[in-house]
């Protein structure tokens, strides 16, 4: 159907017909600017036209409102050839007036008056007329429309001269046509709107309305406005859907019965029809089914979108078109054959997909986004048809199904004849390669697929692959994997489970990664089915184990697969021995089956080397029933602190902060490798994996089936384990233990549970477990004692701690004492005789360690005894005991300090020429009994008199208590100090401790008596003798008398006064000479400062050596006399001082 | 009114998923899972452009029987609603209202101080309210 605007002609019709072909051919040669109304953008359009003779019938339709914009003339032309003014006035003017009034009466204002001129007539007349016919016409009719009156030279006679004139005519015709269209389109839209508003009135027919609006769309399409045309079709589409949706609301739409035809024919859309309006004629004349009508609508819309070069929009609209049409078919309850709609959907999908394949950039990606679900839909519909016709794998079509195939094939129909120029007419599409044969249409492909099982499978697999690849291309990976799920099921039905496993595994991996547990469970069920068919018992076992641990599945399903798991677990060993490949890993992810809740080291005391590590593991089993684990291992590794320390010491180029930032919970055990040059300079540093080569620490993450296996296996050199553990559903407490063999700070890394020959390896532990330390406990021997006292038996204790040392049967410890120190093993106090015998102490003691075992601790009580020192050498008496232990080659010296039990001092007292010896015993730490104190002197001529009372009972002393003994020393007068300068006396006393009152030991102390002869005698006397008054000067007479001959001639006396008691007036010291006299008197003045009985002022007598005799000794020296050589007879005399009376002064 | 309402976390893990028809639960879960592709696609488009304020993503995709709509919060939590295709009376603004109410319910649920973000939504009050929302009585 040609859609061309209609131009009517009137007047000199033969003349116009002679010009018609030239005019109509010239109109499409150029574009014309179209200034549209309502602020729409200006557009350049290319027009075509057809000519008809003026007819009032069309105008009559226009007047009644029953007109179509396709059939309505858009321009009326009156043609005349009159060149004579008089002839114009006589006949032509009247004809034009009648014609114009006719147009005006019908409301048409689109007209043009064309005057064809002939130059010959001008040449014959030699004068110029005053007015031309054109001027007359414009004066009469074109008062306001000068542009509608135009003259043109006749091109039939003057081809060369009339070119410019003719071009102006054609341009004017184009302009007036477009102006007419502006007015007509607006009027036509108003007509359509009024028709639409009457759609609820009885008798209204959608089909008539449809053709009206489609006419407008066709005009828009003709005017190169495909977008505007598309809007018209979209409005028709929406209105039709709305009518069908609300068809139950009222029964007035009788026209719907025209679409209620049975769907005997269900061919899909065809975008390459030779005759685009074939279906339109059918709609008008015969009536079509709903499906055919919908197909026509979509074809028109697709064609317009193709004109806009918007192929992705076609793909975008397809699914909505298919789904909404299906709903409409259901709503109006059309009868159709089973599978017919599937065929229709399939053919429609393939039609659009073939069109999209030819799309070019930049529409390609957007087109693919919309194509992917269309491929999926085609695959799904083909599957439904295969199920219906018995074409699925493993099925054979029955005769009834074959009949269905025949009926469906006839319903699909033949492909309409294609317009091959279509592809050439649209240069936006990609050209096909000449070598590629043209693709079959969707209908042909479907018929071929329904014809045989092999063809069906081939097409189905092809469509599925295309869907997956297209989804992946537009990065819709989840949708791609769902298509893979369908394809995997199809391969299972084809008995090719090895191809299906890849799809299921991909889907499972993604679902598990995003925690879609329910969908993961379903995929595991599919995988188990595949592995069972494949005979892969290892994978089947692992999958059954995973299924039985899925909480989302029903208990019956879990129990069934748990039984399958146990059954195949028994046969797994045989299978694994037959396939010793490393790729066939027997590892599972532990977290799928168990949940690690807690790991606790339960050793109370520090773990010693060769001791046992006790670990309590809390694990939750996800199995539905109990399962026996042959082995449960938990490996531990050294902490990385040592490596960090080593790396910090190396001068690397990296900064120390970078080194310290190293993660201490590294999953791989790595070590530092340093490469040095020959001159010991560092060449390079590297970090290498420190594992035996026989083990593979890292495995390649395969893209098919091994992705779900743990990727890293820790080093299981050191582990704690438990064997034959029954794991019940829920929380299990497992006691694990192992021998601690290596020393260091350890950290748990990985848990491994073994069943038969299947190992469940955990990923990283869910929490940071506490570290534990294994240390070596060395054997040790120590001496334990409190404050030790010399002179009495003291208890000590030998503590032997075995540690990890293995003792020989005859092991013993040798204790060797220093000089004067003796030791023995502690005796039983019941055996008093042996206890009191000091002969049992020895300087060397061997302590046998009878049957001493490792980690045993034994306490051996001992006793030590040492003599008290005779002199006060130091505060502590030091001894040491050397231990010789079987676990050490060197002796271990232990210092032992003793305090003396008591100490003795002596003083020499003088009374005139008599000498007395005082011995003072002072108790220290011990509680002792004393008796039989004696002083002996072996020097002849010296006699000691014991002045102490006779005592029968021993004297008891303890800390801070003193006992004093007094003896008189008498020296024969014939013996002078010159002959006996030193008198040596020995003090001997017997003592016993309170704990051993019957054991008496002797304590001896020697004293040396020197300077014991009295040389001088001091006497002091105060005057007045009895009454000294306060603050009154008294006279003190000091008399020094030589008692014994001595070499000292010069003496110095000093008054040592107390500042609060006495004040010395005048000289307080002086030097006297005793060279030739036996006595010397000195008079001193003293004054008392206090009342009461005051002691006599102290006087010190010293030896004086003058210092002026030699040059080297320039200072005098004063040496006090020892107390034995000076006797002060008035030392303890007291003076009564009374208060002074003011009147006496 | 709705066949399925799902709340998906920002790591695409399902936090809450309920269906009105138990027999179709598996199929609806697959639909929700596939809808995440389209959600990511729309969010990715908005990544280059200035951040869009529109949380409602509109129709994600359609099947023969269902229409799947999406909504994404500022914290990248996704709401997916699956609606019956034959329910032509349901307007788009009504779908927006469903999402708006669902967003309010979700914010109320996660205001619980004992709720750990990222965990499944197990609030009974939330479940009852969503059931009402799904049946169209909310």
Automatic annotation (TrEMBL), chain B:
Gene Ontology cellular-component terms listed: cytoplasm; nucleus; perinuclear region of cytoplasm; TRAPP complex; TRAPPII protein complex; TRAPPIII protein complex
Gene3D superfamilies: 3.30.450.70
Main location group: cytoplasm
Any Gene Ontology biological process: Golgi vesicle transport
Database matches in InterPro entries: Longin-like_dom_sf, Sedlin, TRAPPC2L
Taxonomic superkingdom: Eukaryota
Pfam family, one: Sedlin_N
KW Transport (keyword) present: yes
Alphabetic keyword roster: ER-Golgi transport, Transport
Compartments in which it is found: Cytoplasm, Perinuclear region
Family in the record: Belongs to the TRAPP small subunits family. Sedlin subfamily.
Protein name per the record: Trafficking protein particle complex subunit 2-like protein
Species assigned in the record: Drosophila melanogaster (Fruit fly)
């Amino acid at each position: 159907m040609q859609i061309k605007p209609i131009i009517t002609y009137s007047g000199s019709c033969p003349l116009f017909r002679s010009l018609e072909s030239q005019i109509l051919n010239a109109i499409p040669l150029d574009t014309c600017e179209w200034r549209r109304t309502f602020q729409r953008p200006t557009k350049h359009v290319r027009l075509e036209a057809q000519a008809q003779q003026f007819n009032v019938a069309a105008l009559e339709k226009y007047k009644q409102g029953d007109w179509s914009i396709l059939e309505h003339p858009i321009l009326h032309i009156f043609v005349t050839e009159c060149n004579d003014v008089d002839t114009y006035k006589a006949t032509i003017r009247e004809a034009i007036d009648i014609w114009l009034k006719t147009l005006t009466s019908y409301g048409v204002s689109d007209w043009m008056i064309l005057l064809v001129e002939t130059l010959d007539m001008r040449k014959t007349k030699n004068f110029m007329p005053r007015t031309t016919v054109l001027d007359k016409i414009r004066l009469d009719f074109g008062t306001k429309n000068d542009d509608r009156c135009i003259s043109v030279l006749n091109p039939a006679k003057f081809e060369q001269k009339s070119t410019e004139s003719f071009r102006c005519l054609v341009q004017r015709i184009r302009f007036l046509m477009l102006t007419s269209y502006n007015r007509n389109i607006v009027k036509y839209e108003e007509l359509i709107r009024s028709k639409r508003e009457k759609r609820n009135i009885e008798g209204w027919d959608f089909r008539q309305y449809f053709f009206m609006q489609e006419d407008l769309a066709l005009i828009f399409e003709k005017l190169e406005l495909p977008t505007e045309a598309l809007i018209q079709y979209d409005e028709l589409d929406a209105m039709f859907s709305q009518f069908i949706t609300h068809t139950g609301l009222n029964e007035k739409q009788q026209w719907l019965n025209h679409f209620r035809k049975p769907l005997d024919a269900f061919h899909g859309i065809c975008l390459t029809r030779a005759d685009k309006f074939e279906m339109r004629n059918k709609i008008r004349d015969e009536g079509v089914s709903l499906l055919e009508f919908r197909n026509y609508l979509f074809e028109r819309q697709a064609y317009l979108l193709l004109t806009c070069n918007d192929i992705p929009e076609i793909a975008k609209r397809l699914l909505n078109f298919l789904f909404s049409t299906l709903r409409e078919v259901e709503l109006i309850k059309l009868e159709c054959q089973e599978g017919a709609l599937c065929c229709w959907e399939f053919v429609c999908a393939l039609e659009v997909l073939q069109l999209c394949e030819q799309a070019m950039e930049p529409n390609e990606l957007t087109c693919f986004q919309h194509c992917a679900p269309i491929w999926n839909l085609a695959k799904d519909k083909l599957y439904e048809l295969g199920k219906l016709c018995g074409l699925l794998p493993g099925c054979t079509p029955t005769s009834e199904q074959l009949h269905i195939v025949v009926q469906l094939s006839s319903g699909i129909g033949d492909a309409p004849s294609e317009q091959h120029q279509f592809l050439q007419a649209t240069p936006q599409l990609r050209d096909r390669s000449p070598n590629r044969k043209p693709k079959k249409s969707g209908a042909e492909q479907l018929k071929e697929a329904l014809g045989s099982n092999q063809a069906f499978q081939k097409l189905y697999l092809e469509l599925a692959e295309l869907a997956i690849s297209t989804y992946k291309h537009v990065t819709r990976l989840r949708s791609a994997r769902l298509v893979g799920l369908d394809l995997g099921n199809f391969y299972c039905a084809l008995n090719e489970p090895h191809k299906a496993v890849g799809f299921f595994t991909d889907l499972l991996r993604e679902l598990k990664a995003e925690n879609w547990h329910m969908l993961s469970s379903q995929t595991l069920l599919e995988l188990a089915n595949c592995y069972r068919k494949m005979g892969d018992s290892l994978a089947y076992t692992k999958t059954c184990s995973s299924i039985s641990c899925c909480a989302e599945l029903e208990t019956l399903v879990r129990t069934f697969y748990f039984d399958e798991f146990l059954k195949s677990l028994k046969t797994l060993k045989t299978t694994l021995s037959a396939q010793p490949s490393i790729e066939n890993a027997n590892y599972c992810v532990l977290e799928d089956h168990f949940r690690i809740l807690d790991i606790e080291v339960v050793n109370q005391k520090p773990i010693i080397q060769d001791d046992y590590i006790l670990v309590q593991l809390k694990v939750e089993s996800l199995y539905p029933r109990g399962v026996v684990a042959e082995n449960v291992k938990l490996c531990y590794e050294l902490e990385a602190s040592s490596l960090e320390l080593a790396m910090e010491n190396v001068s690397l180029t990296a900064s120390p902060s970078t080194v310290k930032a190293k993660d201490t919970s590294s999953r791989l055990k790595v070590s530092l490798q340093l490469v040095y040059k020959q001159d010991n300079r560092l060449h390079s540093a590297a970090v290498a994996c420190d594992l035996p080569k026989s083990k593979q620490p890292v495995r390649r993450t395969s893209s098919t089936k091994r992705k779900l296996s743990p990727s890293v296996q820790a080093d299981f050199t050191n582990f704690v384990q438990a064997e034959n553990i029954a794991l019940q559903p829920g929380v299990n407490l497992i006691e694990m233990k192992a021998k601690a063999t290596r020393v260091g700070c350890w950290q748990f890394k990985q848990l491994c549970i073994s069943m038969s020959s299947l190992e469940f390896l955990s990923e990283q532990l869910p929490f940071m477990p506490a570290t534990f330390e294994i240390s070596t406990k060395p054997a040790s021997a120590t001496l334990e004692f409190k404050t030790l006292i010399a002179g009495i038996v003291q208890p000590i204790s030998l503590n032997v701690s075995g540690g990890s040392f293995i003792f020989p049967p005859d092991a013993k410890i040798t204790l060797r004492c220093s000089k004067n120190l003796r030791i023995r093993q502690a005796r039983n106090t019941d055996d008093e005789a042996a206890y009191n015998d000091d002969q049992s102490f020895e300087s060397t003691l061997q302590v046998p360690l009878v049957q001493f075992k490792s980690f045993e601790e034994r306490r051996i009580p001992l006793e030590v005894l040492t003599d008290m020192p005779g002199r006060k050498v130091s505060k502590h008496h030091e001894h040491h005991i050397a231990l010789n232990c079987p676990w050490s080659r060197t002796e271990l010296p232990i210092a032992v300090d003793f305090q003396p039990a008591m100490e003795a001092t002596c003083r020499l007292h003088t009374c005139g020429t008599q000498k007395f010896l005082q011995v003072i015993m002072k108790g220290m730490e011990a509680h002792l009994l004393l008796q039989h104190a004696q002083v002996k002197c072996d020097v002849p001529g010296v006699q000691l008199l014991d002045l102490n009372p006779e005592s029968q009972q021993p004297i008891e002393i303890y800390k801070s208590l003193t006992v004093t003994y007094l003896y008189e020393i008498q020296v024969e007068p014939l013996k002078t100090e010159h002959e006996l300068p030193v008198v040596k006396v020995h003090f001997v006393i017997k003592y016993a401790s309170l704990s051993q009152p019957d054991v008496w030991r002797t304590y001896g102390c020697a004293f040396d008596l020197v300077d014991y002869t009295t040389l001088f005698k001091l006497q002091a006397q105060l005057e007045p003798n009895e009454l000294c008054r306060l603050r009154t000067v008294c006279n003190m007479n000091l008399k020094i008398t030589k008692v014994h001959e001595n070499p000292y001639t010069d003496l110095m006396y000093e008054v040592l006064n107390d500042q609060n008691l006495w004040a010395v007036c005048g000289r307080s010291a002086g030097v006297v000479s005793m060279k030739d006299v036996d006595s010397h008197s000195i008079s001193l003045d003293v004054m008392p400062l206090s009342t009461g009985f005051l002691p006599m002022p102290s006087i010190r007598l010293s030896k004086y050596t003058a210092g002026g005799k030699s040059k080297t000794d320039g200072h005098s020296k004063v040496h006090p006399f020892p107390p034995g050589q000076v006797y002060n007879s008035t030392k303890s005399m007291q003076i009564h001082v009374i208060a002074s009376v003011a009147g006496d002064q | 009114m709705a066949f399925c309402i799902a709340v998906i976390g920002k790591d695409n893990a399902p936090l809450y998923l309920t269906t009105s028809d138990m027999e179709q639960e598996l199929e609806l879960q697959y639909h929700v899972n596939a809808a995440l592709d389209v959600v990511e696609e729309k969010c990715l488009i908005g990544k280059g452009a200035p951040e869009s304020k529109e949380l409602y993503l509109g129709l994600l995709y359609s099947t023969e029987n269902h229409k799947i709509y999406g909504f994404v919060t500022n914290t990248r939590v996704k709401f997916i609603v699956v609606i019956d295709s034959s329910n032509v009376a349901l307007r788009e603004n009504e779908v927006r209202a469903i999402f708006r109410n669902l967003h309010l319910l979700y914010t109320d649920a996660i205001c619980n101080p004992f709720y750990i973000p990222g965990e499944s939504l197990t609030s009974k009050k939330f479940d009852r309210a969503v059931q009402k929302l799904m049946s169209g009585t909310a």
